[in-house]
Amino acid sequence: MTARLSTALACCLVLFVVTAGLVLVPSAGMAIHELERVLLSALRTETGSLIGPDWLQEAIRDISALGSMTVSIGGTMLGAGYFALRGEVRKAAFLLAAITGAVLLSVGAKEIFARPRPDLFEHGTRVFTPSFPSAHAAVSAAVAAAFANVLAMRFVETPARATIFVACGCVAILIGASRIYLGVHWPTDVVAGWALGLAWALVCVPLIKSETRS
C-alpha cells in the first residue's frame, strides 16, 4: 500500500473512531448531538412533514434506494460478472471484496453499537436495523470507490480519471445525505458509514493495483 493510500486509510479510521466515540460516550459529544437534532428538525415543517415538494421527496427516496443492499449487491454482482467474463478476474474479485466487506462491517457494527434510530419525527422510509453506522453510506462509499478505481483504470488522462472519482463520490454523498433528509439516520451515523466504507475500499485497493503491475 502506498503512502498516500495509507494516509487516507488512517484518516478514515480516525474519523470512524471519533464518531464512534461520540456514540458510545454521549456526554463527550453533547453539543454535536444537539446540533444533530437541530439539523433534523430543520428538515421538517412545523407539522413534522418533510420539507420540499412531493417530487423532491420522491426523488430523494429514489436516491436513497440506490444505496440499498438490493441495488448495491445486485449492481456489484453484475459488474463483477462482466469483468469475470472478460477474464479480468482481479477486477471482479476487487468488486466482490469491496461489497462483501462493507456489508459485513456495517451490519456487524450496527449490532455492536445498537444505536436507536432518530425518533424526533416519523421516518420518511421504512427501516429495520439499528442506526450506527449507516449501512447505506458505508456500502455506497465502498462500492463507489471500487467502481471508480476500476473505471479510472481505462483512462490515462488525469481529467478523465478525476471526473470518474468525483462522479462516483457525489453519488455516495447524495445517498448518505438522503438518509439524513429522510430522518432515518443521525448525521454522525452517515459520516461514520462513509468513513468505514471508504476505509474498507482502501484496504481492498491493492487487489486491483497488483493487476496494474502484473
Protein model, in words:
The chain has a single domain (3-213), classed as Vanadium-containing Chloroperoxidase, domain 1, CATH 1.20.144. By secondary structure, it is mostly helical. 74% of the residues lie in helices and 0% in strands. The longest helix is centred in the last third of the chain and has 27 residues, at 187-213. Helix 5 (89-113) packs antiparallel against helix 8 (187-213) and helix 6 packs parallel to helix 8. The chain has helices at residues 3-24, 30-42, 54-65, 69-85, 89-113, 135-152, 158-181, 187-213. It starts with a helix and ends with a helix.
Please tag this protein with its features.
single chain, 214 residues, mainly alpha, Vanadium-containing Chloroperoxidase, domain 1, globular
CATH architecture level-2 label: Up-down Bundle
The counted number of beta strands is 0
Q: Low-confidence spans: pLDDT under 50, at least 5 residues?
A: none
Helix content: over 70%
Structural class: mainly alpha
CATH class: Mainly Alpha
Which strand-content bin applies to the residues? under 5%
The biggest beta sheet is recorded as: none
Number of helices: 8
N-to-C terminal Cα separation, in Å? Answer: 16 Å
- Average pLDDT level: 91
**SSE pattern, N- to C-terminal:** HHHHHHHH
Gyration radius (Cα, Å) is 18 Å
Number of structural units classed as domains: 1
Shape: globular
- Here the CATH topology equals Vanadium-containing Chloroperoxidase, domain 1
